[in-house]
Amino acid sequence: MEWWLGxxxxxxxxxxxxxxxxxxxxxxxxxxxxxxxxxxxxxRAHILHLAVGTGMATILFTSVxxxxxxxxxxxxxxxxxxxxxxxxxxxxxxxxxxxxxxPPLVFAALFTAVITIAATNLLIDRKPRPARQPPGFAGMSVxxxxxxxxxxxxxxxxxxxxxxxxxxxxxxILEAIGTAAVIGFPIxxxxxxxxxxxxxxxxxxxxxxxxxxxxxxxxGIVLSSMLMAPVGAxxxxxxxxxxxxxxxxxxxxxxxxxxxxxFV
Length: 264
Known about the structure:
single chain; mainly alpha; two-stranded antiparallel ribbon; 77% helix; globular
């Protein structure tokens, strides 16, 4: 029962931040799932990939709840979501395949560097050129590929990269958050497929696993996260823009450092 309570608690936090910030929550989930899986005695050789694969699978459900909440408020740029999706679908499959070979510390260092830069830009509130707009279909597809491949390594829904990019392109922050929630779904879909497929070739996985997706953890997180996502979305539309940026920046710093320290 204590493990189920742990999963539900993680899901509640993930759902709230998914709704408020458009994030998938993987940067929160993965370190916590690693701790829970180790405490449960799951095979240590597979704990990291199980945490990432399970985190990716939960984002499928959390993003749907978040999208519905933001769409009801008209805060989604569907044109951006459509143009970035082709690259995302391919990038997630490639990224999850590469993730099964790359040393975790190498990715953790790269992830920390990128997210720290994004957080600093948000915190100092650097203004983009007024005329800057999102690139065309080709440019957005390439961007989607890069974001999705990077997201697959750490089970992040993409908002850690897409929201700063959209703000840089003069997309209002509430629309950037809502659109990031939409983008999170194809990222999670391609990443989940990749982690299931690559995990099926492994031996010694715990019972109730489908590839690198641990079903008990996924179900516990999803149950509470889908309930909390609309609460987070409502909070986002009540908070001043400057506070949303500050919350994003602080969360970026904390999760980037936590990801790095997990693998040092």
